[in-house]
Amino acid sequence: MDMMMPEMDGYETIASIRNNPSYEDMPIIAVTAKSMMGDREKCIAAGASDYISKPVDIDQLLSLLRVWMYE
Fold first, then answer.
1. What is the pTM of this model?
2. Is 44 contained in some domain?
3. Which position among 17, 52, 58, 63 has the lowest Cβ density within 10 Å, counted as fewest Cβ atoms?
4. Which ranges of the chain would DSSP assign to H, the alpha helix?
């Protein structure tokens, strides 16, 4: 989930997805270009499963995907 989207930001989008019982267990990885103190916690509080900042390290992203897709 890109956190810096136009119209509806990632926080609102994640909250909207989590409000649907069908998607409450779906893994959502938050991706943001603006990595600031507290961003990870804010993303997790909004309902993200995990967090990664840009530029995305492909190995780190694949590792996160393996963790969340395994569950």
1. 0.84
2. yes
3. 58
4. 10-18, 39-46, 58-70
